[in-house]
Amino acid sequence: MTSHVDWKEVDKRLPCAQVPQEKAKRDALFHEMDSSSNGFITISEAQNGLPHLLEGHFRKAHEAASYIVPVADLKPAVKLAFGVARKVAPPDGKGRKVKQTHDLCVDRREFHALLVAFRAYIELLLIFQDIDTDGSLGRLNWKECEKCLPLLEQWNISEKDAKHKFPDDWTPSMTFSAFADWCIMRRFGKLELLLDENDAEETIKYEAGSSMFAMLQAFQEWDVDGSGTISAEELAGVLMTLDSSFTNEDAMKLFAAADVNKDGFIDYSEFMQWIAK
Questions:
Q1: CA gap 163, 182 in Å, rounded
Q2: Per the database record, which ranges form the EF-hand domain (predicted)?
């Protein structure tokens, strides 16, 4: 339950405030997570580093992690936070290689946005866990939500709003990603992300209800392995799941059209161009 969490301790470990002391902590944390020392954090480095900040005690190598928040796995929150923090800031330089690295990773400026988003998604993950009680492998149905309306009402979600989100009473249909987007849109309309820009702090409004956000979320869902690109196999799997009439050959033709630079993968820029056609 979110009420059992020591949020002051969470906020102490995730320095998000716009003050020099907190920025200095972000500097130290970024350099600690940047294991390759290249000025960028990959999704793998974020998956390893962010949960570690919230571990409850020192553990031996063979022991499973335990956290100061009652969550067994924080990676879903990390993945969503990483997805919204990437490319918040413009590339710091020119050239194709610089842009590709920037599009796949979080730089030092965006690390602030990553921490802010991670903090928000942790809270939503806890609520999602409280609601998801039927063992449906991470999907909510209406009956579960109906029992937890007070939790949803804190996010400006009414009973009528919630019921319209489900096809029937019992079918598990809402993933954590969809749930988080829904809650953010209803409560804030936008997720306010913070950016460290040299010595100045800059606030960026992330439009949670915009078409850009919807495209980003679609890209994340199709990017099954969280690599930052969509492979031919991932595209084929999604298309054939959405429409059983699709063949692998059909999917390969679409993939060839979308893979503009012919590197064997569809990046976010190519995905946007393809969807817009």
A1: 13
A2: 21-56, 210-245, 246-277
